[in-house]
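User: Okay, second chain of the day. Same drill as before: sequence in, structure tokens out.
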Amino acid sequence: MFVTLEEIAAKIPDGAKLAVPADYAGIAMAATRALIRRGVKDLHIVGVPTSGFQSELLIAAGCVKTYESSALTLGEHNPPYCFNNAIKEGTIHIVDATCPAIHAALQASQKGAPFATLRGIIGSDIVNHHPDWKVIQNPFSDSNDPVVAIPAIQPDVSLFHAPLADREGNIWVGRRRELINMAQASKTALVTVEEISETNLLEDETTAAGTLPALYVGGIAHVSKGSWPLGFWQGDGEDSDHLRLFKDMSRNDSTLQEYLAEYVFGSGSAS
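Assistant: Same drill. Structure tokens below.
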């Protein structure tokens, strides 16, 4: 259950459908750098419901074949040059969605259902560009009542960073219920954590409600500050200076390669 960063990276095969959370929810950046160092290829990233620096870095390193999400944003550090260039050059395939659609498709997988339905996107262009989404009649209505049927998304792996794990492999995520949804929708979850608890998190009434059971977890690595340079809701704020540095160095390929050499493969990786 408890493994190294390198073992976490080894558990994510080439071509995997990899679910990752939005930047505010707990990003396993140390594991992401280990994954790049492993040389992973052809990932299908599912941003839940968006992604940011993590996916930008994976795209920069040539690890991504498909990006499925409602957005890729670096927030105050926009624009994401690597993502934009990959789209222009056609080196990644985009599967556009909306935040509710991503969550609904994962919830369908979480419940073992083949699809989920939504109404709010009817009439939008996004439906026209999704041949796998079907506008159907609500079978429980006698009047015209169209809904969009969205196929379940079942990732191979969910990858995220959390504050706490116990020795039994349970993971505390607190109010970040999207992490539980994401993990339960996936075939397995791989998690880096800030700390290890000697108390069973499911036996403590104060932590049980916000705990992902070990049943859904395939590997845990203890990595302090594992979300750096991104901020963490149970830890440090973001390293804005470093994110600005990445933005500046990602503008052209030569300085981007220098960044990867120093901060992913070199001594500046911090992991």
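The first helix runs from residue 5 to 10.

User: Thanks, on to the next one.
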